[in-house]
Design goal:
Length: 365
Amino acid sequence: MKHILLIATGGTIASQPMAEGLTPTLSGEELARYVPQLKDICTFKTTQLMNIDSTNMLPKHWLQIARCIKDAYDDFDAFIVLHGTDTMAYTAAALSYLIQNSPKPIVLTGSQQPMTGAFTDAKLNLYQAALFACDDNSYDVNVVFGGSVMCGTRAYKQKTMSYNAFTSINYPLIAMIRANKIVRHGCFDQKPQEHRSALQSGLSIPHAPMASECNNHKTAQESEHSYVRFYERLNNRVMCLRLTPGLKPNIFDALTKDYDALILETFGIGGIPNSAQHNFACALQRWIQQGKTLVLTTQVAEEGLDLGVYEVGQAFAHNEGVLRGADMTTEALLAKTMWVLGQAHTQGEIKRLFYTPINHDRVQE
Ligand SMILES: NC(=O)C[C@H](N)C(=O)O
């Protein structure tokens, strides 16, 4: 039987009704007791890192979860992170960058209704997360929710109440889970050979060096190991801004003090106002000239960005100072930009890391 570490962090799954509203109170150990069927498919230990509504998750918590998995990596076959749904997509993306190339699966799940609720989805989500975590062909960071398995960089919360709250954006589902059967999407039906070999070498999986342990010019990305890589640094001076009709271009000047990078959600396939009254070109150029990072993406959930299509985007299509989000989710862009700026020191390095696909986060341009 596979041995799993259940990492509890709070969320609705752990919440109970209080006078102030739903509040996380149940521990991971208590949650597991509600699903006795877990014992039929795995052995497990629980650990409680925090017990918070995911509204209060911060980048330092992502680092804490990644560190917990790193420290326990050799002792378990898989990891389940119990998490609130509201920011689960951000955490799943962040873990995809902080823990790369993992032959052991890391699965996030949670629920729309508390574990103690009469019609809860929590039991099935936890059970199916364990089922997927125990499967020999699972690896890397995934979200299991409402019978869908999504890549950690592609998950998106699209519903506030329904049980099928998550969807995979611009990328196929890894699998569907019907009751206790995993139905994999064709290209995800086999764990890659490099991961199999790594696992066959048993407990002595040589973790690749942390980025901070690599010499200055060689990032962990370039390490010759094909094994799991853990990272410990994020730059959280990154923010997202959605363009809205009438937004004033001088907004960026107000952001320069607190932020190193801006992810701008443009209109449609890539429209940025350029009328005489509202022209963003100068303001954005000023941002770039200060040495700051500018990532352009779309505020439309599906199908991604192409700045070359319209006159209102073309000025940025070939701008060397702009990073293009392509078909990535905003959640993944935020986490990736924090990770990239945590590792890279030159514009060239930033660009190279940003455009390198990680855990299927973007299609190669
Ligand atoms: N369904 C949930 O888990 C929502 C909750 N507010 C959270 O994100 O922690």
